Amino acid sequence: MATILETRDLCKSFAGYRAIDGVSIDVEEGAIHAIIGPNGAGKTTFFNLLSGFEKPTQGTIALGGHDITGLAPHRISRLGMVRSFQINSIFTHLTVLDNVKVSLESCTELPSRFWLSGSATNRLDARARELLADVGLERERDVVAARLPYGRKRALELAISLAREPRVLLLDEPTAGMAIEDVARVSRTIGRIRTGRTIVLVEHNLSVVSDLSDRITVLQRGKVLVEGTYAQVRDDKRVVDAYLGGGSVHA
Ligand SMILES: Nc1ncnc2c1ncn2[C@@H]1O[C@H](COP(=O)(O)OP(=O)(O)OP(=O)(O)O)[C@@H](O)[C@H]1O
Ligand SMILES: [Mg+2]
Fold this sequence. Notes:
Blueprint: E1 3-14, E2 17-28, E3 32-36, H1 43-50, E4 58-63, E5 66-67, H2 73-78, E6 81-84, H3 96-106, H4 118-134, H5 150-162, E7 168-172, H6 180-193, E8 198-202, H7 206-212, E9 215-220, E10 223-228, H8 230-234, H9 237-244
Parallel strand pairs: 3-8, 3-9, 6-7, 7-8
Antiparallel strand pairs: 1-2, 1-4, 4-5, 9-10
Helix pairs in contact: 3-4, 3-5, 4-5
The protein binds adenosine-5'-triphosphate and magnesium ion (MG).
């Protein structure tokens, strides 16, 4: 399998504190690659570097073989790496369907006149409905977004991100703050939308990680502690020690 995303010796310091300290990873095209680690390990900082919200102090990031180190977030998103969650991308006064249509329109290169033609509008509508079905929101399509419960808002954010047709989707704690039924639903949704895409997932819920991930990188104090499959990572003594001070990492 080809590598779609790679970091080399990536570092980020905040006032001398190395939040990310020499991280080199390879993400394979088509994989779900999870980044886990204890609180403060640097997971969110790592995502901020990948998506351009923070600039690295040192090191490089390549997407599809092209150096994207230091590019602005909108440029990285145009190159096909899109971050979902922890960004407020929803227009709360619009319906669920219109939110997805706005996202579809905003990422097209076609002149606005094109969209005035009936067939184009229908195509847009059809694609938006498809995306809502992918995230399990088809029944809520006419609901004003502000009225959606929390878990369903996150599903809408996912559909908005998918409308940009990302090659690499960065999911930052997709199940954070969710009730158990919603966690299972999000996990199923991610399993469904992975086709034809690469997903990098930061997630605290280890049962979600074990269900979905092909490969896992464990971060600790800004460094890669261990990398491997869920079974390899789970049974590694260093991971057990890092996580729970001697407890177990079984999900
Ligand atoms: N903007 C910042 N300024 C100063 N320090 C920061 C900044 N952002 C992160 N840090 C520090 O970098 C370290 C890593 O933080 P980060 O948020 O990346 O961890 P995390 O793995 O996402 O943790 P959590 O699991 O709690 O979300 C922490 O010690 C944090 O205090
Ligand atoms: Mg975090």
